[in-house]
Amino acid sequence: MNAPILVTGGTGTIGSRVVPLLRSAGQDVRVLSRRGGDDAPGLTHVEGDTVAGHGLAEALEHVDVVLHLAGGAKGDDTAATNLAAAARRAGVKHLLLISVVGADAMPIGYFRAKAAAERAIAESDVPWTVLRAAQLHEFVLPVVRGMAKLPLLPMPGGLRFEPVHVEEVAARLAELALGSPAGRVADIAGPEVLDVRQLADAYVAAMGRRRRRGVPVRIPGAVGRAYRAGDNLAGAPVHRGARGWSDFLAELVARTADVLR
Ligand SMILES: NC(=O)c1ccc[n+]([C@@H]2O[C@H](COP(=O)([O-])OP(=O)(O)OC[C@H]3O[C@@H](n4cnc5c(N)ncnc54)[C@H](OP(=O)(O)O)[C@@H]3O)[C@@H](O)[C@H]2O)c1
């Protein structure tokens, strides 16, 4: 029995990959989320809400390290502020936040909230680490799938992504949580920067479908300008994963084939 690492959002897409890595490293883990989950040896779940500020003091009892992964479309700034204050009161020794690449540059509410969350962690008086991650393949997939269903592929000029594999993000987070507070570390992103044409072509090829003709579209306003400027893309230094979009699509096709078999 060791002091558990608290993983907020440990039941989510990223969290559910990080928790087993921490367990394999011999760490006890406590997961905080709104809905809870099934306990197992070395793994407990507590219910709480980082945005509402419920259940944080109880979740932080006897905890030295917190990996804050809980997040949603809204309220990540409030959640980080609540958690940072509770962590300071609890005497936490390392508070680690996942943020998003471009947090301080993209004029979109989600990114702004992440930038505010970073500030809350950095100003918490708790030793901290912040890792900004690019969008996961799982996030890009529904966007590309939706576009690829249209008769003509909309091609917003300048819109690019550098999707990253969830297991590579999880591995980096586990490594950071097991290490010492490091401040803002190098962003993590996928191996390639791809535009919508490239993402969609790889998707339809993997699904055995026909390539769609494209039609140029323009994202208006400040958001369009930011995407065209690449403000959503990682700057240097960046830690690039090895598993790219076509690897992810091949895994997806193999999983679907397994289900149908
Ligand atoms: N997915 C991406 O492409 C990406 C890229 C960069 C950064 N990130 C960031 O990485 C983090 C994890 O992303 P993800 O894709 O794993 O998200 P996810 O699959 O939506 O999982 C979110 C997790 O947070 C918990 N949660 C949400 N709101 C909560 C609240 N108010 N209080 C307590 N728990 C809460 C959820 O459980 P309950 O619903 O049961 O509460 C779940 O465990 C997020 O902060 C996200 O912004 C994601």
Describe the structure.
- 41% of the residues are buried.
- The chain has a seven-stranded parallel β-sheet with strand order 3-2-1-4-5-6-9, sandwiched between helices. It has a two-stranded parallel sheet with strand order 7-12.
- The mean pLDDT is 96.
- The chain contains nine helices and 13 strands.
- The chain is an alpha/beta fold and 261 residues long.
- The chain has helices at 15-24, 56-59, 76-90, 109-122, 137-148, 166-178, 196-206, 221-228, 245-260; strands at 5-8, 29-33, 43-47, 65-68, 94-100, 128-133, 153-156, 160-161, 183-184, 187-189, 194-195, 214-217, 238-240.
- The radius of gyration is 19 Å and the shape is globular.
- The structure holds NADP nicotinamide-adenine-dinucleotide phosphate.
Keywords:
Rossmann fold; 9 helices; binds NADP nicotinamide-adenine-dinucleotide phosphate; seven-stranded parallel beta sheet; globular; 261 residues; alpha/beta; 39% helix
List the helices and strands and how they pair.
Elements: E1 5-8, H1 15-24, E2 29-33, E3 43-47, H2 56-59, E4 65-68, H3 76-90, E5 94-100, H4 109-122, E6 128-133, H5 137-148, E7 153-156, E8 160-161, H6 166-178, E9 183-184, E10 187-189, E11 194-195, H7 196-206, E12 214-217, H8 221-228, E13 238-240, H9 245-260
Parallel strand pairs: 1-2, 1-4, 2-3, 4-5, 5-6, 6-9, 7-12, 10-13
Antiparallel strand pairs: 8-11
Helix pairs in contact: 1-6, 3-4, 5-7, 7-9
The structure holds NADP nicotinamide-adenine-dinucleotide phosphate.
Residues 8-9, 11-15, 32-35, 48-51, 69-72, 79, 98, 100, 133, 135-136, 139 line the site of NADP nicotinamide-adenine-dinucleotide phosphate (NAP).
